[in-house]
Amino acid sequence: MAPHPLKTRFAPSPTGLLHLGNVRTALFNYLLARQAGGTFLLRLEDTDAMRGHEKYAAALQEDLRWIGLDWDEGPGIGGPHAPYAQSSRGEVYRRFFTGLEARGLAYPCFCSEHELAIARKTALASGRPPRYSGRCRELSAAEAQTRFAAGAPATLRFRVAEGETVAFEDKVRGAQRFATADIGDFVIRRSDGTPAFFFCNAIDDAVMGVTLVVRGEDHLSNTPRQILLLKALGLPVPDYAHIALVVGADGAPLSKRTGSKTVQELRAAGYLPQAIDNYLARLGHTYADNAFMDLDRLAAGFEVARLHHAPARFDESHLKHWQREAVQHATADGLWAWMAPEVDALVPPGARVAFIEAVRANLTVPADARAWARILFSDDLRVSHAAHAAIGAAGGGFFAAARRALETHGTDFKALAATVKQDTGLSGKALFQPLRAALTGELDGPEMVKLLPLIGIERARKRLLEWCENGEKSKE
Ligand code: GLU
User: Fold this and answer.
1) Is 121 helix (H, G, I), strand (E, B) or coil?
2) Mind spelling out the 3-state secondary structure of 292-361?
3) Does residue 472 carry a pLDDT above 60?
4) Per the entry, which co-factors are needed (predicted)?
5) What's the 278 CA to ligand 1 centre distance in angstroms?
6) Ligand 1 atom 8: the closest Cα is on which residue?
């Protein structure tokens, strides 16, 4: 049989904003589909009556697009298996419920929550798995009818054969085996008529042609039940890869406290989508190459076999590393769009490209660009404490020499420094530190060769003049 083309999916429940953990699952599925030239599908799992789910469904689509994860089939795009929101697929699930009931593979269960809770407790206390006892399993159709007629609420349970084993090869965790005796008959439709989450989830994966399900290992215990269902319905069973969850520094699942951020928070903090992609594609997955990559290259090197078994630990310093890389690799237009809200009012239009190329290596967030724009293009220079000390140590004669050199060489920093070196006999740190300190107010930063032309001769002259007298500010 010809191998089927790979089809992966992201199937979020729109109960909140996308955060690092679930966007990583989306990214893995996306990269695998792209790697194989397959299809990446988006499905909204919004069956439960949830508050605000329209808002979250819209937000998560915007977040996915922002981060570059375009889907080939799904909401907003359509496709052969529309609709892609489960809230609109009730008819599909009803058809399968009816089919299962008609074949005696599912039966109504009238046990109350209270009765079930007691049975569960008793089972656990005597060391048995807390599976359903099977009490309503053999109710006759007439008996069930009588209870329905009396208005008794019923769930629909799937009948699980005793004494069998559900086995599958998890693409990350290897061979998995579950005894049906431990599973017991399970609820596929609640007494209010709504389908169970894992029922719709499995049905949709099968009917939408999904061939590989990559999801968090918190769903592993659903998988044997889903396989039983799909087999009973004669539907294709996808491959499964259950990935370890992302944990915080304390080893517990990532939470707000341990650094879990929503995509929107990261975006507001100035993170670039490429930084998030490069970081997350390595969070629980190893590349042969540690270079910064665009999505196509991230996809080309992404393999299920390289996914880790162990939990992936979130480390903000790694995210920051990829952020700096993303800033280095961004186009000038891309960086301008990113920093414009912070610096547009400060940077003269003609100096944009030179400004970006001068400061790019020193930026992590747009606020850093603002600091440099103020230094280069505003008249009130704030001189740091350390810079002040370096200026004081150099003395007024040094700056008089620097001013003369400026008049001779203009903003050619190399020539200016060479002349000051000649005139003062200073070199290395003793030469460069006070020049940088007086001209930028800082001891560190981008290359002066790039900064001085942006500061311009007027401003540079004023800044040097201020320290010409005797190393102290001459006009206060
Ligand atoms: N809607 C489920 C969730 O958001 C999907 C689980 C799965 O990927 O199968 O957790």
Assistant:
1) helix
2) CCCHHHHHHCCCHHHECCCCEECCHHHHHHHHHHHHHHCCHHHHHHHHHHHHCCCCCHHHHHHHHHHHHH
3) no
4) Zn(2+)
5) 23
6) 215
Q: What is the distance between the alpha carbons of residues 109 and 185, in angstroms, rounded to a whole number? A: 10
Nearest-angstrom CA–CA distance, 200 and 331: 43
**Which residues touch 33 (CB under 8 Å, ≥6 apart)?**
6, 7, 8, 39, 40, 72
pTM: predicted TM-score of the whole model, two decimal places: 0.91
Is 256 annotated as ligand-binding?
A: yes
pLDDT, tens digit, for every residue of 24-69?
999 999 999 999 999 999 999 998 766 678 899 999 999 999 999 9
CATH code assigned to 90-243: 3.40.50.620
Please calculate the CA angle 312-315-317 and round it to the nearest 5 degrees: 150
> What confidence score (pLDDT) does residue 378 get?
96
CA-CA distance, 244 to 247, in Å (whole number)? 9
The domain limits of the chain are 90-243, 340-465
Nearest-10 crossing angle of helices 20-35, 273-280: 80
| CATH class of residue range 340-465 | mainly alpha
Establish whether domains 90-243 and 340-465 are of one fold: no
Summarize the confidence of residues 213-237 as an average pLDDT.
97
C-alpha–C-alpha distance, residues 17 and 58, integer Å: 10
Closest Cα partner for 207 from 39, 48, 87, 92? 92
